[in-house]
Write a structure and sequence with these properties.
Keywords: Manganese, Metal-binding, Secreted, Signal. Helices cover 27% and strands 23% of the residues. With 239 residues, the chain is of the alpha+beta class. The longest helix has 22 residues.
Length: 239
């Protein structure tokens, strides 16, 4: 009987120690991030010092717009040095007689600076911002600016905006964003991605069901839309 009691006590002691061991903090096993992209490794870094260690070359801090084959925009996805900085940058041009898609940036405010040429800009702020100017009808306010070289305008995050180059020469611009991953939402393309019923109701039934697909297929795929009256003025052929 004494042997059985001792055996029972020993078993209970072992179980208690095992449970106590499970409750104690366990050492963290180091994980390798080598299979992650450099951008992902930089986002997981605990300190700025570690981020600099992941960018050992001086050339890591230079972005060359002349070598970009896609959209001329520097973000944390194609320039990892921007991780943690909270900024992105673009340098491009709006061709003669063209208009950029109506779009917005959901995660960043944009500063749009014209370095040469002439651009007409239109921006619609958030809902509820009304036109209270003289002779207005309290409709949605539209902010229109006539930009020349050396001038800057601002597009707050989430605001709809577009630019038109009404002249026969390309307009060069730079744009700065207060997010390293600002994103772009294309208004027409994304609106008509909804089902036909949603589109019909959104326009109050003014677009009949059979016309939705026709409008959807007519949305241009180029980022710059040609302005017909300007093409005539400049004697330029439509692409």
């Amino acid at each position: 009987m004494l042997f059985a009691s001792t055996l029972y006590f020993d078993i209970m002691l072992v179980l208690a120690l095992a449970l106590l061991g499970d409750a104690l903090p366990q050492p963290i096993t180091a994980r390798s991030n080598s299979d992650l992209s450099l951008t992902a490794q930089l986002r997981l870094a605990d300190t700025a010092i570690e981020r600099y260690q992941l960018l050992p070359n001086d050339s890591d801090f230079v972005f060359n717009f002349a070598d970009t084959e896609d959209l001329p925009v520097a973000t944390s996805q194609n320039w990892p040095a921007l991780v943690g900085v909270g900024a992105a940058f673009s340098m491009s041009q709006l061709p003669a007689c063209s208009m950029s898609f109506l779009h917005l940036h959901p995660r960043a405010t944009e500063l749009f600076a014209l370095t040469s040429g002439h651009v007409l800009s239109e921006m619609v702020p958030q809902a509820g911002v009304l036109d209270n100017s003289k002779n207005s009808t309290n409709k949605q306010r539209v902010i229109r600016t006539d930009l020349r070289a050396g001038q800057v305008t601002i597009y707050p995050a989430g605001s709809f905006h577009t630019q038109v180059n009404p002249d026969c020469e390309a307009a060069n611009f730079t744009a700065a964003f207060n997010s390293d991953e600002f994103a772009v939402s294309l208004v027409a393309e994304q609106l008509f991605a909804f089902s036909d019923g949603v589109v019909e109701r959104t326009f109050g039934g003014s677009i009949a069901g059979e016309d939705v697909e026709r409008v959807r297929s007519a949305i241009p795929v180029d980022m710059a839309i040609k302005v017909e009256e300007c093409l005539v003025k400049c004697g330029l052929g439509k692409r």
